Amino acid sequence: MKPRDGPQLDGKKTQEHVDRDYFGYRCAMIRGHRSLPHTRYCPFGNPLIPSATHPLAKYYEKYRNPHMFTRSSPMDGVLLRLAHASRTKPPDIWQAIRWAPRGMNLVAGTFGGELYLWKDSTFNFDMKSLPSYADCERSPPIYHIEWTHDKRYLLSADDAGRIVLNNELYKEVWLLKNAHQGAIRSFSISPTDECVAYGGAGGHVRLLNLKTGKKEGSMPGHRDEVRKIFWHHSSSLVVSGSKDESMKLWDTRIQRCIANLLAHKGSVEVAAFVPVGNKIVSAGVDMKVKLWDIRTLKVIKTLEVPETSYDYLNRSRYRQFSESNHITCISFHPFCQNVCACGTHSGDILYYDLFSGTELGRVRRAHRLAIWDVDYHPAGYVLATASKDKDLRFWSSKYGLM
């Protein structure tokens, strides 16, 4: 509800009801169609489009996005329109965000150690969950959150080296203290949801059994802090990027490093397996994005991150962030999985097609300060960004508002 000046009543202004704008494409209908037996996985198309004879076809023609939900279109993942910007009271820095499995809520972790929930359609604040840190003077910052592949549990890692497991109702199941000596910057869950690989300060990549809650091993190798960890979607391979300018490929079965890649001139901020094909994408502070082939361990393509343009009047205000525009986070589109959205240190959003190696779009000055995390909605029609400027913003196409 938005306040609006109305007639005077007992010396007070009344408020008229104004409907809030919302966006969405009937997520419940999409979930229902996704569970139907005839739905097949289509690596280069959209499996959510029913046939003309399907009972849901007439509803899709009425409610689907004209620009989105098209087959084999890389532009499906390019979202350039600002739908909404949200803040907490009091404002706090957003560190990590993830959409709920059904796409109805957005889970966001803050620098103050709190988990917030936002509704996907009306942008309303839904719930705040406080992890239990009874033995801490303050709640440590949450650096990474991730859902398990079966969509039943939510894991979060913080600056105190702890891992918290929450259920679907965002209630704490167990808390593992002293999982890591120092901050846990990133973690990734295995395809079978049995193990999680995490790393941070110290340069070690550690393994944790999610069923027993016990550590399974430690893999030393990096000489500096581990910035990013990503588990392969169908094998035991794990890739990690570090501040020591290297990117390592690990085999969790033998718990050894099988490849050492000198990826960038500077810290490696992003290292991830591309969902389609045997490729790895990496990005560092040298303002370059590289695409690697797992089989040959060689660079296939190198993309240059464009410099940010600044207004003359505001240049002095953001001068300390104008030196580097490197990529800090990445998210892949759920259907066009060769398309990725990247957030930069200067607050820009970049969209790349990793197959052709081209830039699809760009949002300049999407945030005033660095973007720490980005994530696509499970239906692919909205992108959420978390930034250091204490804003949580939602981006959609020009058809995003209904």
From TrEMBL:
Name of this chain's protein: WD-repeat protein
Gene3D superfamilies: YVTN repeat-like/Quinoprotein amine dehydrogenase (2.130.10.10)
The WD repeat ranges on this chain: 219-260, 261-302, 364-402
Cross-referenced PROSITE patterns: WD_REPEATS_1, WD_REPEATS_2, WD_REPEATS_REGION
UniProt KW keywords: Repeat, WD repeat
Superkingdom per UniProt: Eukaryota
Entry keyword annotation includes Repeat: yes
Cross-referenced Pfam families: WD40
PANTHER family: PRE-MRNA 3' END PROCESSING PROTEIN WDR33, WD40 REPEAT PROTEIN
Presence of the UniProt keyword Repeat in the record: yes
